[in-house]
């Protein structure tokens, strides 16, 4: 790993660890919804905002010229050519309910895409990280995506967006897909889903309508673990479907999702 990349990785790991610790220790017993975004189901808690602030302040103090894009509003162009893409809590609904599996997701990007991705899952004691061209790791040990299996033997993770319209369509696609696969998993965090592909806990993951911060770190981790990660079926609203899986299964799943109009 080059000096600058090593620096980015170290900072991302440290920021994710700090935010994950704060979110665990300071989670109020009576945590409520502070605001809603795209729909009443798209919730923000005071802790999302606090964690993003902590991460951005930590990184900005050490790299004042970088850009920022965060789920809770951080947005700065920067002039260094490096931009941090941050989801302070991916899986906010899990966090709100006290369910495990929410993550802190931090990526550093340049003009070619993701350089570094870190996904911290405090409730599982898991830290995933990857560096472009340098492989993917779970708690420091190298990981690989599962070898491809035929679609009818694939355990497939997915997620649902927040608007009723999108969910109606996503439910229709699942209804068609489910009889032809091993089973569906819905963990509640896109970052965790991509890490699950990266270490072979599921065979594949797909979802329409993710935001850049849901995807940035997990995509580096899944592709460095040997999975194919692609965005397909772009639509006028700017949404597309992210599909992650080992190569031959990836092709099979893409073909089915295209046929189903996912
Ligand atoms: C959400 C989670 C969820 C996915 C949604 C995302 P958030 O992110 O990743 O699994 O299905 O599409 O918006 O809102 O918890 O950061």
Give an overview in words.
With 262 residues, the protein is α+β, with helices and mostly antiparallel strands. The chain folds into two domains: 3-143, Fructose-1,6-Bisphosphatase, subunit A, domain 1 (Fructose-1,6-Bisphosphatase, Chain A, domain 1), CATH 3.30.540; 151-260, D-Maltodextrin-Binding Protein, domain 2, CATH 3.40.190.80. It is built from seven helices and 15 strands. The strands form three sheets. It has an eight-stranded mixed sheet, with helices on both faces. Helix 5 packs parallel to helix 6 (212-224). The chain starts with a helix and ends with a helix.
Question: How are the secondary structure elements laid out?
Answer:
Blueprint: H1 3-25, E1 35-36, E2 43-44, H2 46-62, E3 67-70, E4 75-76, E5 83-90, H3 92-97, E6 103-110, E7 113-121, E8 126-131, E9 136-138, E10 141-143, E11 155-158, H4 164-177, E12 183-185, H5 190-198, E13 204-208, H6 212-224, E14 228-232, E15 241-245, H7 247-260
Parallel strand pairs: 3-5, 11-12, 11-13
Antiparallel strand pairs: 1-2, 3-4, 5-6, 6-7, 7-8, 8-9, 9-10, 13-15, 14-15
Helix pairs in contact: 1-2, 5-6
The structure holds D-MYO-inositol-1-phosphate (IPD).
Describe the structure in brief.
The chain has 2 domains: 141 residues, Fructose-1,6-Bisphosphatase, subunit A, domain 1 (Fructose-1,6-Bisphosphatase, Chain A, domain 1); 110 residues, D-Maltodextrin-Binding Protein, domain 2, CATH 3.40.190. The protein has 7 helices and 15 strands. The strands form 3 sheets. The chain has an 8-stranded mixed sheet with strand order 4-3-5-6-7-8-9-10, sandwiched between helices. A 5-stranded mixed sheet has the order 12-11-13-15-14, with helices on both faces. The protein has a two-stranded antiparallel sheet with strand order 1-2.
């Amino acid at each position: 790993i080059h000096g600058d990349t090593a620096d980015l990785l170290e900072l991302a790991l440290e920021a994710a660890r700090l935010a994950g610790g704060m979110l665990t220790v300071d989670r109020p017993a009576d945590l409520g919804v502070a605001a809603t975004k795209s729909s009443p189901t798209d919730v923000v808690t005071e802790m999302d905002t606090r964690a993003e602030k902590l991460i951005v302040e930590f990184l900005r103090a050490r790299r004042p010229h970088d850009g920022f894009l965060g789920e809770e509003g951080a947005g700065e162009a920067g002039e260094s050519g490096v931009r941090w893409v941050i989801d302070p809590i991916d899986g906010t609904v899990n966090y709100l309910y006290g369910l495990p599996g929410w993550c802190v997701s931090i990526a550093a990007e340049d003009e070619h895409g993701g350089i570094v991705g870190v996904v911290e899952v405090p409730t599982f004691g898991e830290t995933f990280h990857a560096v472009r061209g340098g492989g993917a790791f779970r708690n420091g040990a190298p990981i690989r995506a599962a070898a491809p299996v035929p679609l009818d033997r694939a355990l497939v993770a997915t997620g649902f967006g927040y608007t009723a319209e999108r969910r109606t369509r996503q439910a229709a696609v699942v209804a068609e897909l489910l009889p032809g696969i091993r089973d569906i998993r819905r963990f509640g965090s896109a970052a965790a889903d991509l890490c699950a592909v990266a270490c072979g806990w599921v065979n594949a993951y797909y979802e329409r309508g993710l935001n850049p911060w849901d995807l940035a770190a997990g995509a580096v981790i899944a592709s460095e673990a040997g999975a194919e990660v692609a965005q397909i079926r772009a639509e006028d609203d700017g949404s597309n479907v992210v599909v992650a899986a080992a190569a031959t299964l990836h092709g099979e799943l893409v073909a089915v999702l295209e046929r189903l109009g996912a």
